[in-house]
Structures are given as C-alpha cells and as structure tokens.
TrEMBL record:
Residues 109-139 are annotated as: Disordered. It comes from Mycena metata. Residues 123-139 have a biased composition (Acidic residues). It comes from the Eukaryota. This is Uncharacterized protein.
C-alpha cells in the first residue's frame, strides 16, 4: 500500500528535506521493516512482540492508529486522514509528510519507541589534542 508512486530516478522531496534519521524511519515504516512486534515476530524471534502500552501484539497499524503512547502526536496524522487510513498515510504525499512529522515528534518506530535525544554539545574533554603539541618531534 506504500507503493503508489511511479519509479523515479530523482530523489523525493522527503529525501532532500528530512533529517536522515527521520527519513530512515519513514522509509522503514512505509515498507514495514520497522521496530515493531509484527516485524520481530517474523525476523527477530529474540525480541518481544508486545507493546509497552500493554497491547499483546504490536503492529504498525496499532502504533499509528491507537497506541496510547502517541495520543498527543496523533492529530498530525488525523489532519490528513481522519480515520488514519494506512494507504493514505503511507502512500500519499500529504500522508508521508504527516507521517514524518509524527515520527519526528513522537519517537514512534525507534528501537526504544521514544523521541531520540539530541546529542549533547561536545565538551572540552571531547576535543582532540591539537596537532603539533606533542613532543615526539614529528609535529
Ligand atoms: Zn501500544
């Protein structure tokens, strides 16, 4: 149902504008290769298939349409498709734009299912030693 665009050699507008990590999750979500119990049940038997909210079998549809973890962000999807129809969300331009926003703000479909922390600013200790300050004679 995500396969509704003709093939193209040009990168999509999403590819060019989204953060790389979010773009990756949008793609994984659209093709179904994503961090869900549904996927684990087929490909990663060591992982649990339930959802932290208590749902026994976590599916992509559950996360997008009903998981209470993402109640606060779901309006973004509903604005495009009132009943959050998966073909609309996964297979139309407007749907994918909404999906990207939903994924970015909610953290859904990450391994932890929570928003990713932005990396801390580098501290002084992380700075590499400037070149030429050692005394082994090569600087
Ligand atoms: Zn859930």
């Amino acid at each position: 149902m995500a396969d509704r665009f003709p093939p193209s050699l040009k990168p999509t507008v999403h590819f060019k504008t989204l953060k790389r990590e979010v773009f990756g999750r949008v793609t994984q979500c659209r093709i179904g290769h994503c961090f869900t119990g549904e996927y684990y049940s087929k490909f990663v038997p060591s992982e649990n298939v339930d959802c932290p909210c208590g749902e026994a079998f976590q599916t992509r549809e559950h996360l997008l349409r009903e998981c209470p973890q993402y109640e606060d962000q779901r309006h973004v999807l509903e604005a495009v498709s009132r009943d959050i129809s998966l073909p609309e969300i996964l297979g139309t331009k407007e749907g994918i734009a909404a999906l990207a926003e939903f994924l970015e703000t909610s953290g859904a479909f990450t391994k932890s299912g929570k928003p990713r922390r932005s990396p801390d600013l580098p501290s002084f200790e992380d700075e590499p030693e400037p070149a030429g300050t050692d005394d082994d004679g090569d600087g």
